Amino acid sequence: MEKEISQAVIRRMPRYYRYLGELLDAGVDRISSNELSSRMRVTASQIRQDLNNFGGFGQQGYGYNVRYLYDEIGKILGLDRTHNMIVVGVGNLGQAIANYVKFEKLGFCIVGLFDIDPSLRGKQVRGLFVQMLEELPAFLEDHTVEIAALTIPKENAEATAKQLQSLGIGAIWNFAHVDLDCVEGLVVENVHLSDSLMQLSYNIANHNDR
Predict the structure, then answer these.
(1) Rounded to two decimals, what is the model's pTM?
(2) From CA 162, how far away is CA 194, in angstroms rounded?
(3) How many domains would you assign to the chain?
(4) Contact, 169 vs 147, CB < 8 A?
(5) Residue 155 CB-half CA count within 13 A
(6) Going residue by residue through the chain (210 aa), what tens digit of pLDDT does each one get?
(7) CB-count burial class (<10 Å; 0-12, 13-18, 19+) for 115
(8) Is residue 166 domain-resident?
(9) What's the rounded Cα separation, in Å, for the pair 13 and 85?
(10) How far is C-alpha 29 from the chain's CA centre?
(11) Which domain holds residue 180?
(12) Are 110 and 103 a contacting pair, CB within 8 Å?
């Protein structure tokens, strides 16, 4: 039986990947857990514990080979392959996601845009034309899609997620203002932008109170 990795550890892995990428850009070949700790504001012990979940990767007295660790974390995160993705809901947020070029550099390739608003039919966003959601089954006959980014009102989110699942899409990146953990069998990442803003508000208030 494979070891269960905690979500807290998984949430830190993209940060490691990002910081290691910055180190590579700066020409750094190796780094100790203490040096990485000071950059990431995570204890060296925590870094070692996190990486030991996946095999360790470090050498005592040497530290970590930055390129090797960057590539290995990329594999852990599934970034060594392409993930085809569609956007369902092509309002302002959906268009912003479609326009964000860095997703493609990470291997997330947006291959289709879908909505239910007829006024959006044929609108072009970064070379893709918006199609109606009813056209998705035919689209999937010719395209393999792993992920759907959902940027629609919360009232429609669960039914749409189940519809996407029935069409063979197994993962939802959910920006609707409702958690979709109740949809059995789907891999879901719920993103609440307002939660991050409220955390910022809390930190501002506590900073000003010091």
Answers:
(1) 0.86
(2) 25
(3) 2
(4) yes
(5) 0
(6) 356 888 889 999 999 999 999 999 999 999 988 898 988 888 999 998 999 898 878 666 678 999 999 999 999 999 999 999 999 999 999 999 999 989 999 999 999 999 999 999 999 999 999 999 999 999 999 999 999 999 999 999 999 999 999 999 999 999 999 999 877 889 999 999 899 899 999 989 987 666
(7) buried
(8) yes
(9) 21
(10) 27
(11) 83-195
(12) yes
Let me know the angle formed at the C-alpha of 171 by 169 and 177, rounded to the nearest 5 degrees. Answer: 115
Which residues does 112 contact at the CB level (< 8 Å), separation at least 6? 86, 87, 128, 131, 136, 139, 143, 145
Distance CA 97, CA 104 (A): 11
List the structure tokens of 133. Answer: 């959601």
Distance between the two ends of the chain, CA-based, in angstroms? 49
Helix (H, G, I), strand (E, B) or coil at 18: helix
Length of the chain: 210
Q: Collect all residues with Cβ–Cβ distance below 8 Å to 95 and sequence separation of at least 6.
A: 125
Quote the tokens at residue 197. Answer: 């803003």
User: Does residue 1 lie within any of the structural domains?
Assistant: no
114 and 188 in a single domain? The answer is yes
DSSP, collapsed to helix, strand or coil, labels residue 201 as: helix
